[in-house]
């Protein structure tokens, strides 16, 4: 699951109960397990 936080221009990726990562606008959001080869920068979701 991924929760986006527009005011902070960040996203929190929940891969498991112990693997939680906060990613900022310049970091890639690796969604390769859902869409192979797709890892856009978090900032792309905020325009």
Question: How are the SSEs placed, and which strands pair?
Answer:
Layout: E1 2-5, E2 10-14, E3 20-24
Antiparallel strand pairs: 1-2, 2-3
- Sheet-strand content, in percent, reads 25-35%
Mean pLDDT level: 92
Spatial order of the strands in the main sheet? 1-2-3
Radius of gyration: 10 Å
Domains, number = 1
Q: Quick one: biggest sheet?
A: 3 strands, antiparallel
Q: What string gives the helices and strands in order?
A: EEE
Annotation field: number of helices: 0
Query: Percentage of helical residues?
Result: under 10%
Number of strand elements: 3
Give a verbal description of the structure.
- The protein has strands spanning 2-5, 10-14, 20-24.
- The radius of gyration is 10 Å and the shape is flat.
- It is mainly beta and 47 residues long.
- The chain starts with a strand and ends in a 23-residue tail after the last strand.
- A three-stranded antiparallel β-sheet has the order 1-2-3, with no helix packed on it.
- It has one domain (2-46).
List descriptors:
3 strands; 47 residues; 30% strand; mainly beta; 3-stranded antiparallel sheet; flat
Summarize the structure.
With about 45 residues, the chain is mainly β. It is about 0% helix and about 30% strand. It has strands spanning about 1-5, 10-15, 20-25.
């Amino acid at each position: 699951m991924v929760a986006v936080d527009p005011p902070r221009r960040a996203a929190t990726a929940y891969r498991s109960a112990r693997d939680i990562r906060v990613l900022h606008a310049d970091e890639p959001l690796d969604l390769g397990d859902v869409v192979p080869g797709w890892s856009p920068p978090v900032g792309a979701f905020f325009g």
